[in-house]
Amino acid sequence: MRGAGRSGSAAMTPERTEEERRASDRRRIGQLIGFGLLAVAVVVVWLVSVTSGTGSPSAGSGSPDIYPAAKIPPPRESSLERAAAQAGCSLRSFPDYGDAATTGRVRYRTNPPTSGPSNPEPAADGIYDTPASTEKLVRALENGRVVVQFSTALSQHARGQLKTLVNEDPRHVILTANQTGMPFAVAATARNRYLGCQRLDAAAFDALRNFRTAYRR
Description:
Layout: H1 2-10, H2 14-52, H3 80-87, E1 90-93, E2 126-127, H4 134-142, E3 146-150, H5 156-168, E4 173-177, E5 186-190, E6 193-197, H6 202-215
Parallel strand pairs: 2-4, 3-4
Antiparallel strand pairs: 1-6, 3-5, 5-6
């Protein structure tokens, strides 16, 4: 009986105890690595979901909820003045009201603004899901951009049509909602000039096209 007891206790050698401890440590490390990889995967999925739904301005496209796909009439009238008159749009030129740099809010002398003090950082080209800063838009005008703005009351279908229009020839063009309470449904601005329209019909699309071609740099 005693011999059997001594034999059982001799089986638990220090070497075996150390081996089991190391095996347990390896299992624990493997579990920690697995949990870490799972956490990283969760974070990656969250980031993708957040960034894919962002409304931040980019040089790319807007959200389908803001700019649903829509067709527009093909070009017909190549004269800006005739197209503007046919559409009943207001086509005006203004004095230069300066280009001082400021990081504050500005009360502009035209609506939508065509010149005046502006933010040192211009708005980037592209289609904006959320309204671009007015002061940055004015700085973009100084850099030769054409800004197409729409009233927040404009229908989603019409917004989609404007996106289609801009994407026809998007170089040096910005599309954004207006923040100045302009008296138009849609307007295009360039340095010291604007085209303001109360409706979007074939002639208005031609006027917007021709304004873009005439005044962007």
